[in-house]
Amino acid sequence: MLLTNRRLRAALLAAASVSLVAATLPAPEPLGIGDPLFPRLGNPGYDVVAYDLDFTYGGDNRKPLDAITKIDAQATQRLERINLDFTHGKVRSVQVNGAAARFATAGEDLVITPATPVEDGARMRITVSHTSDPTGNRGGWVRTGDGLAMTNQADAAHRVFPGNDHPADKAYFTFRITAPERLTAVANGVLEGRARAGAITTWTYRTHHPMATELAQVSIGDSTVVRRQGPGGLPVRDVVPTKDRQKLEPWLKKTPDQIGWMERQVGPYPFENYGVLVVGADTGFELETQTLSLFERSLFTQPGYPEWYVDSVMVHELAHQWFGDSVSPRRWSDLWLNEGHATWYEMRYAQEHAGESMETRMREAYRQSNGWRAAGGPPASPKPPVEGQPISLFRPVMYDGSALVLYALRNEIGEQAFARLERDWVRIHRDGTATTADFTELASSVAGRDLSAFFTAWLYRQKTPPMPGHPDWRSEAPAGNQNAPRNRHAAPDRTPHGTGAPHGTGAPHGTGAPHGTGTSDSTGPSDGNRA
Questions:
Q1: Region 424-432: what's the mean pLDDT?
Q2: Given phi > 0 = left and psi -120 to 50 = alpha, else beta, which region is 469?
Q3: Less CB within 10 Å around the terminal CB: N or C of the chain?
């Protein structure tokens, strides 16, 4: 039969062309951006501008959530296929720029074949309808006593939503969380809307600064949101189990002064708000999710931890907002910049507020440093994580072993130059990514001399160099299991190593309501747990 309808003939020719292109493409395969520690994470060919994540939670944390992920991105090359990192969920449909696209899985990648290739430089919107499964124990969602929270670091965000799961590609985020009315949903950034429809409520949050996928946070549970003001009127919102609201207040009211202390060290807080998220789950770590750091409930409620110790853990995660969140690692081997700095300010705070000697801790770290390097690699050249053990990247060498590098650097260039370096670092690279080479270059500029040899020795060699100013310090040969993972993003050992003086709060900083007074949201008889 001869086709005489031009539109029908054109449509059939276009379909034939797509089929021909698809037939000539190689089989789908997982890609990566070549990070030596996580070679399959991230994807080449595009830059994500924004994520729009829509989760629907039915109230049972053992069942998958329904989700829609929208990704706005710009192609950096012609794309006949688009790879996203995604696993542990069922994909129902995919669209690229509004047109249905074919998709397949390869390893932990979702491989998309758009109806027409995306040209170099073109903007594209990818829409994926999928489920998000909270079961399993490899990170991503963590089930709490009353709902869910996220623990995406280092390589688990793609177990929650499709994306470009590497900190080198930061983007803006919008979250829409639909949950039963009795629960509170929170996420990174600022609450922009809450809409109730019968027995369910949809919450909308948006970040004002770009964010790495590993730092995304969504929490759903029987929670109370406590608000107060920080330095300069900074909004501080803490999210805690409703039953623990009063019990946790002595800890929550410390945050504004801790922010003020950090600002006096390195400059203005870099984001739109801050707070702590306390969850009833045994994660084995605390986590610096952007604007809303996650903490285990037991850290604040279990007896035996000295006050100074809990304070220092809180400051560790707070310091990450500058070091790791605002300035993110370009590659995972730059992680020492995150953890070394967070540990540095944790130690400084404990020394200033509780008399815990920083030099004593650094001397002990120096003693163990050769063993840590042998087990986990030097600070900027860590050994790859163990398959199936995500936290194995977070070894002692990343914490006290990396803070030891900063201690040596301060001794090498002097306190004034070091303080200037810290402030310049977070100012120059704010909202971006940076590398070890960037830090070396800036440190050399501030010091007025080439520090390449210093950093090469301290960051890449198997043996710890002599400590400037302390020629008598010695590092012992490796012994025992030096590679045991520590609690990530907390003090490197939860065994108290001293009694310390009682914690003293810093002087109030900024304007607004008194720092010690927190207010819970309460817009109605049953709204005590609202954000």
A1: 98
A2: left
A3: N
200 within 8 A of 176, measured Cβ to Cβ: no
What's the angle, vertex CA 508, arms to CA 505 and CA 511, rounded to 5? Answer: 155
**Residue range 8-28: average pLDDT?**
54
Tokens describing residue 155? 């390589």
Which DSSP helix (H) or strand (E) runs through 454? helix 452-460
Cα gap 345→403, rounded to integer Å: 9
**How buried is 131 (Cβ within 10 angstroms: 0-12 exposed, 13-18 middle, 19+ buried)?**
middle
3-state secondary structure 347-407: HHHHHHHHCCCHHHHHHHHHHHHHHHHHHHCCCCCCCCCCCCCHHHHCCHHHCHHHHHHHH
Q: How far is CA 492 from CA 263, 265, 364, 380, 404, in A?
A: 24, 22, 12, 18, 13
For residue 89, CA distances in Å to 72, 136, 161, 336, 387 come to: 21, 12, 8, 32, 20
- Total length of the chain: 531
* Token pair belonging to 150: 């996220």
Instruction: State CA 455 to chain mean position distance.
Output: 26
Helix axes 335-354, 307-319, angle to 10 degrees: 140
Complete edge-to-edge strand list for the sheet that includes strand 223-229: 293-296, 276-279, 235-241, 223-229, 519-520
Amino acid at the residue 296: E
Helix (H) or strand (E) run with residue 441 in it:
helix 436-447
Q: What percent of the chain has pLDDT over 90?
A: 81
Please check the confidence at residue 501 and state whether its pLDDT lies above 90. no
- For residues 243-256, give the mean pLDDT: 97
Largest interatomic CA distance in the chain: 94
Cα–chain center distance at 369: 26
Name the nearest CA neighbour of 55 among 160, 195, 171.
160
pLDDT at 389: 65
- State the pTM of this model: 0.88
Beta strand extents in 300-357 (DSSP E only): 327-329
Neighbours of 136 (CB within 10 A): 14
The secondary structure of 107-154 as a DSSP string is TTEEEEE-SSPBPTT-EEEEEEEEEE---SSSSEEEE-SSSEEEE-TT
The rounded distance, in Å, linking the Cα atoms of 92 and 113 is 15
Tell me what the pLDDT averaged over the chain comes to: 88
Three-state DSSP state, 7: helix
